[in-house]
Amino acid sequence: MSIVEFFSAEDVAWQADAPCATAAFDFIPDVETDEEAATAEEHWCRSCPVRTQCLAWAMLHGAEGYWAGTSTYQRNQLRRVRTRAKCPLCLSTSLVYVDPHELCLACGVSWIRDVREEPIAATPLPATGAA
């Protein structure tokens, strides 16, 4: 699992390292389809070295289109506050939580947990000695 280094929401220098930067594919189409989302994820996003920064930037800016192997719909689902039994992106059930966040151990994506409910499948991360 990697940790995203801090970067300015306005800084887009990371985009130069993205394989999609020179791709002849419409990453921001008028109509998004599951097939095109799968194509983008498979051909450019799956092995992209800046995928984490790409997803963070798209989430911060409410971007439309295919970013970091996700569609606009998937990112909107990640923004929703709720408790999940599985990751909305990779469908893994390997979830952990530290209030108020849940984290998918399989793909590294995180979201805010609905604090009104107990977690369904996620287990709490063990407490660390650091204060």
Question: How would you summarize the topology of this molecule?
Answer:
Blueprint: H1 34-45, H2 51-61, H3 72-79, E1 95-98, E2 101-104, E3 110-112, E4 123-124
Parallel strand pairs: 1-4
Antiparallel strand pairs: 1-2, 2-3
Low-confidence stretches: none
Question: What is the residue-averaged pLDDT?
Answer: 80
Give me the Rg, rounded: 16 Å
Derived structural class? alpha+beta
Strand order of the largest sheet: 3-2-1-4
For the record, give the distance between the C-alpha atoms at the N and C termini, rounded to a whole number.
22 Å
Shape: globular
Largest sheet: 4 strands, mixed
Order of H and E elements: HHHEEEE
Q: Assess the beta-strand content as a share of residues.
A: 5-15%
Number of helices: 3
Helix content: 10-25%
Q: What is the chains' assembly state?
A: single chain
Structure description:
The chain is of the alpha+beta class and 131 residues long. The protein has three helices and four strands. A four-stranded mixed beta sheet has the order 3-2-1-4, with no helix packed on it. The model has no long low-confidence stretch (mean pLDDT 80).
